[in-house]
Specification:
Keywords: Lyase, Metal-binding, Zinc. This is GFA family protein. Pfam families: GFA. This protein is mainly beta. The protein has one domain: Metal Binding Protein, Guanine Nucleotide Exchange Factor, Chain A. It is 5% helix and 43% strand. The strands form 2 sheets. Strands 6-7-8-9-4-3-10-11 form an 8-stranded mixed β-sheet. The chain has a 3-stranded antiparallel β-sheet with strand order 1-2-5, with no helix packed on it. The radius of gyration is 14 Å and the shape is globular.
Length: 134
């Protein structure tokens, strides 16, 4: 089975995931823009099991639809590495950049297009949603 390791900038916090991604996407919501310091977040979902190494600081945020998301980041360098949705223990969302793999597959969907910066260009054929398609 294929495994991938995503890590923070200093290497103190990492997560190892197994198997193929459940899907990858980008989110343009204002919370993700603020959280990443970029104009969108790039995320890839993986099914359990996964293994976390190191210590994470957590920040819980409630999304527009009422779900709570637990963001895990390194207390040393501040890099966000992954997050989970409370009540959904079978899936983890990993920050694509934390894999440090320029060959990582492109996203399949884009959410919160209503907040996308006009100059951001995405791959052809990507599914686009004005808000979260929950």
């Amino acid at each position: 089975m294929t495994s991938r390791i995503a890590a923070c900038c200093c290497g103190q916090l990492s997560i190892e995931v197994q198997g193929e991604t459940l899907g990858a996407g980008v989110c343009h919501c204002l919370a993700c823009q603020r959280r990443t310091g970029s104009v969108f977040a790039a995320l890839a979902g993986y099914a359990a099991p996964w293994k976390v190494n190191g210590t994470a600081t957590e920040y819980v945020r409630t999304g527009d639809a009422g779900a709570s998301f637990r963001f895990c980041f390194c207390p040393v360098c501040g890099s966000t590495v992954f997050h989970t949705e409370e009540g959904n223990d079978g899936c983890v969302m990993v920050a694509v950049g934390a894999f440090a793999d320029p060959a990582f597959p492109p996203p399949q969907d884009s959410v919160y297009e209503c907040r996308r910066h006009a100059w951001v260009q995405l791959p052809e054929g990507i599914a686009r949603y004005e808000r979260d398609p929950d």
